[in-house]
Amino acid sequence: MRIDVVTIFPRYLDALRESLPGRAIADGRVSLAVHDLRDWAADRHRTVDDTPYGGGPGMVMKPDVWGRALDSVVADAEEPPILVVPTPAGRPFTQAVAAELATAPHLVFACGRYEGIDQRVMVDAARRLPVREISIGDYVLNGGEVAVLVVLEAVLRLVPGVLGNPRSAGEDSFADHLGGLLEAPSYTRPAVYRDLPVPEVLLGGNHAAIDRFRRDESLRRTAAHRPDLLATAELDDRDRAVLAA
Ligand code: ADE
Questions:
Q1: If 81 and its partner were Cys, which of 45, 68, 106, 117 is the partner (CB 3.0–4.6 Å)?
Q2: How much is the ipTM here?
Q3: GO MF annotations for this entry (predicted)?
Q4: Strand, helix or coil for residue 87
Q5: Do the annotations mark residue 159 as ligand-binding?
Q6: Whose CA is closest to atom 6 on ligand 1?
Q7: Can you say whether residue 210 is alpha, beta or left, with left for phi > 0 and alpha for psi between -120 and 50 degrees?
Q8: Is 140 marked as a binding-site residue?
Q9: What do you get for the CA distance between the two ends of the chain, in Å?
Q10: Which tens digit of pLDDT belongs to each residue from 11-23?
Q11: pTM for this one?
């Protein structure tokens, strides 16, 4: 997979070279290029922003600078990449979006700062590329860089050969076998930690009982933390009885 990130803070993305994504980059399974947007500025101050038309606070990133940057990054691409633009005004980033992005051979990320990027940059890019404006949550960051770290961590662990243990990706929260519920809590040794015992059923070898216990914990946790997920979760009569209890 090829990844390009355009930002005015290239060093923010240094974190990608750590850990699992870092290993995939180091051994060539993922090629990562981080570009400084200011390289495409036109003046000696390397200006990338300007005041908003229509008034209002803050600054808007200039379309001409972004247009040159994206044209240049895409110029040698073999097929059109997906352009990902993190913004609090985007569609929610979910595991399903991560799975879609993980199948793309080439992703380009455009990190906005200030009040965002002139919207015509995305309108123009969409004439040639799939464009995904995505939000990582209902809060406002200062820019897209940290959102790119979040998105890439979620995406890269779904790319075959990037995650150390290929079984793990399918077993996390939102995995299909949980039918849209949160995963159950986990425990390891010791069997008693500061007067707190591990749930008894996990110490025995009754796997049907363990599966039932974990299912019940998933249901209770989802009801407590994310009741919105219950509306679309796959529930049977036994699940509904546990929730009603
Ligand atoms: N940029 C600023 N806030 C953001 C958010 N919540 N998600 C994605 N990009 C952002």
A1: 106
A2: 0.98
A3: tRNA (guanine(37)-N1)-methyltransferase activity
A4: strand
A5: no
A6: 88
A7: alpha
A8: yes
A9: 48
A10: 999 998 887 778 8
A11: 0.93
